[in-house]
Amino acid sequence: MSTKLDTLQAALNAVLGDAVKRLDNLKGELTLTVSSADYVRVATTLRDHPELRFEQLQDLCGMDYSTYKDGAPSIYAEGPRYCVVSHLLSVAKNWRLRLKVFATDDDLPMVASLNEVWSSANWFEREAFDLYGIIFEGHIDLRRILTDYGFIGHPFRKDFPVSGHVEMRYDPEQKRVIYQPVTIEPREITPRIIREDNYGGLK
């Protein structure tokens, strides 16, 4: 396995050159980080270059690194908040790659769409837009895919309240579903753990 990863790592460095911002080989997986300016060009090269041939985009998701400053690896402690992570597969070469790109603006996170490179990116990018608010420039139909049409906010952002902002219920008087402010009071539950000496006969 390590020989195959070493071969892929060497090929990525040789083919992409300066477009490689980071290339991490951790736990038997390669993670390639590129700048948002090079994102589409690198993705196209990963798909088309005969030494790489990543024909399939198997997954794409958003990430919010805003709380990674608290005890997280130093590479995420500073820098942009939002990231898009893609998982690629080469059937011809039988290898995989994780591709990462960070949005440069935390207030309006935006990266280019990969829909023209891999058509499977379509719904994945819609999901990342819906849940994280990441805008995919050039996407053919960027709209919510999981939340309701009138939903406000992006529920996978770290600053989104767990209980949400509104709740939905059926009103028998109006004979329809209505939205209202959340009635659940926020609270923090800390479990109480009691350990007895010699519990279960163990010392």
Overall CATH class: Alpha Beta
Amount of beta strand: 25-35%
**Number of DSSP strands?**
9
Q: Report the principal-axis shape.
A: globular
> Please, how many helices?
4
Cα-atom radius of gyration = 22 Å
Just name the CATH architecture.
2-Layer Sandwich
* Main sheet overview: 5 strands, mixed
Which homologous superfamily in CATH is the superfamily?
Answer: NADH:ubiquinone oxidoreductase Nqo5 subunit
Number of domains: 1
Q: What distance lies between the first and last C-alpha atoms, to the nearest angstrom? A: 44 Å
The overall pLDDT average reads 88
Q: How do the helices and strands follow one another from N- to C-terminus?
A: HEEHEHEEEHEEE
- For the largest beta sheet, what order do the strands appear in spatially? 1-2-5-4-3
Task: Give the CATH topology.
Answer: Beta Polymerase, domain 2
Structural class designation: alpha/beta
Q: In terms of per-residue confidence, which ranges show pLDDT below 50 for 5 or more consecutive residues?
A: none
The helix content is 10-25%
What's the arrangement of secondary structure elements?
Layout: H1 2-16, E1 22-26, E2 29-34, H2 39-48, E3 56-64, H3 74-77, E4 82-90, E5 95-102, E6 110-112, H4 121-132, E7 135-137, E8 166-171, E9 176-181
Parallel strand pairs: 2-5, 6-7
Antiparallel strand pairs: 1-2, 3-4, 4-5, 8-9
Describe it:
There is one protein chain. The protein has 203 residues and is an alpha/beta fold. The protein has a single domain, classed as NADH:ubiquinone oxidoreductase Nqo5 subunit (Beta Polymerase, domain 2), CATH 3.30.460.80. The protein has four helices and nine strands. A five-stranded mixed β-sheet has the order 1-2-5-4-3. A hairpin with a 4-residue loop joins strand 4 and strand 5. The longest helix has 15 residues, at 2-16. It starts with a helix and ends in a 22-residue tail after the last strand. 22% of the residues are buried. The model has no long low-confidence stretch (mean pLDDT 88).
